[in-house]
Design a protein that fits this description.
Layout lengths: L36 H4 L6 H12 L8 H7 L4 H13 L3 E7 L5 E7 L5 H8 L19 H22 L1 H4 L7 H16 L4 H9 L10 H11 L20 E3 L6 E3 L12 H4 L1
Helix pairs in contact: 2-4, 3-4, 6-8, 6-9, 8-10
Length: about 280
């Protein structure tokens, strides 16, 4: 007769092994938000960032989502909330920009994306506005040489920015960008170039110390680096001291020898002893 083993694990009634999650799902008819698995199961975001993204996506438009406001609602402090917001920004779920109101007050505009990249792709599919035709040689516009020169400088800066972004994939294949993303990020690279940073230095900053994990959204990753690491403008060059001009040459009235003096007169040798002293 087989001996009973009291310590043997019990078999689940459903026929499946015990352990793991089981779902009891009820349909929602109101007060719910749809969240994609790309966010709920994101391999790089922290649980704090995922939960914060779900909370922000569930809020009505124009609801304040500043760091202090969120930290006051949840047990996480301002440091963890700020770090989670930066994670969401780096992966394209949030975009935060500073705007100055007519009153002069500066506010932060926050845009939440429930599907990062889709809005940018939709905008890229719209036909671009036609570029104005170059003015004819006899037109008034062609007479403004300074404006034409500044336009050439802007075009050169933009071309250099496009080359920097398009060449990033040569340093790391994970930084392969779609053409629309290259054009969208080019103004941010131009801001670096306008502050005196050489293109090679911009490229080196964007490719330095890349994460070992997969970069799922290279455009958002690069946008965060361009914004967070933007160097300050170069200080204005110091004006050199005005050189002191020597006294002009004069002809001595006593010996006709040339000497320097503010006005005509006699040289040191021809002056009386008391005056020379």
């Amino acid at each position: 007769m087989t001996e009973i083993q009291p310590s043997a694990p019990a078999r689940a009634k459903s026929g499946h092994s015990a352990g793991g999650v089981e779902h009891v799902n009820e349909p929602h008819h109101d007060q719910f938000v749809v969240v994609g698995n790309h966010l709920a199961q994101h391999p790089e975001l922290s649980l704090t960032a995922i939960g914060l993204a779900v909370h922000i996506q569930s809020l009505p438009a124009r609801t304040p989502v500043g760091i202090k406001t969120l930290a006051a609602k949840f047990p996480e402090g301002e440091i963890r909330v700020a770090a989670a917001l930066r994670e969401l920004e780096a992966h394209g779920y949030l975009a935060r920009t500073k705007e100055r109101l007519q009153s002069g007050r500066v506010v932060t505009r926050t845009i939440s994306y429930n599907r990062p990249g889709v809005a940018a792709a939709r905008a890229a599919m719209k036909p671009a506005a036609p570029r104005p035709a170059p003015p004819s040689p006899g037109s008034k516009a062609s007479a403004s040489a300074p404006g034409a020169a500044s336009g050439a400088v802007l075009d050169a800066s933009l071309d250099a920015a496009l080359d920097v972004l398009a060449g990033l994939r040569a340093h790391d294949p994970r930084l392969l960008l779609a053409e629309r993303d290259v054009h969208r990020l080019a103004p941010a690279v131009s801001a670096w170039l306008d502050r005196g940073v050489p293109p090679a230095a911009v490229q080196r900053t964007l490719t330095n110390a890349l994460p070992k994990d997969p970069i799922l959204n290279p455009a958002a990753f690069l946008a965060h680096r361009l914004r967070a690491l933007l160097p300050p403008p170069l200080p204005a060059p110091a004006h050199p001291p005005t050189p002191v001009r020597p006294d002009p040459l004069q002809t001595c009235e006593g010996c006709d020898r040339a000497f320097r003096s503010p006005g005509p007169g006699r040289c040191r040798d021809c002056r009386p002893v008391g005056v020379a002293a």
